[in-house]
Amino acid sequence: MISAESLAIFILACLALCATPGPNVALIVGTSLKHGRKAGMLSALGVNVGIILQLAAVAAGLSWLVDLFARHFDVIRYLGAAYLIWLAVLQWRGAGKMGDKPMPTRRASFGRGFAVAFANPKTLLFHAAFLPQFVTNTADPGPQIALLAAIFALIALVGDMIWAVVADRARAALAGRFTRIADRVSAGILAGGALVLLAAGRR
């Protein structure tokens, strides 16, 4: 059984990780700034479904998937960065234009989040290295890793939803003549997420 002290340290580490902006947060914040809370939360949901699948792969001991991501590390992150840059360009070109283009569908908002979650190979590799550090039963680590994965997934989901809500409130504060500024800030955040992916190394 995981000790209370180890569990507390793990939760604090998860909180710190989820509070650190990265490509996932960039997408959620950028989407909320441009399209509002609902689209941002759907993107957050897509991101976290992707994260849950990654955590499930680690908990199930699917080392072949981890190896696959490791072998194609650069290809995956370059594709992810290109996708975020494409979204940033769309945001920039549509800055201040509310009626020209329709809001993204629920499926599109969710799909963007899911795609970006898998566009960062470092996330899966990190989970595979991070979770086992808190396992005390090395003979049968599966149940403890599953518990840690579930805790991380819950914290990540709540954290990302908070990012979406905060970004939506900023959008409301910048409504009206500042809409173009909000849209371009959104584009800049997405581009920043792409830069984070491009700068990501294996360590």
UniProtKB/TrEMBL annotation:
Pfam families per the UniProt record, alphabetical: LysE (PF01810)
Q: What is its main location?
A: membrane
GO cellular component labels: plasma membrane
Where is it localised?
Cell membrane
- Molecular-function GO term, any one: amino acid transmembrane transporter activity
Record-annotated membrane-spanning stretches? 42-66, 78-95, 145-166, 178-200
Recite the UniProt keywords alphabetically. Cell membrane, Membrane, Transmembrane, Transmembrane helix
- Tell me the membrane topology, using the record's own terms: Multi-pass membrane protein
- Which residues constitute the signal peptide according to the record? none
Nucleotidyltransferase keyword on record: no
Q: Which PANTHER family match?
A: ARGININE EXPORTER PROTEIN ARGO, ARGININE EXPORTER PROTEIN ARGO-RELATED
Recorded protein name is Homoserine/homoserine lactone/threonine efflux protein
- Species: Azorhizobium caulinodans (strain ATCC 43989 / DSM 5975 / JCM 20966 / LMG 6465 / NBRC 14845 / NCIMB 13405 / ORS 571)
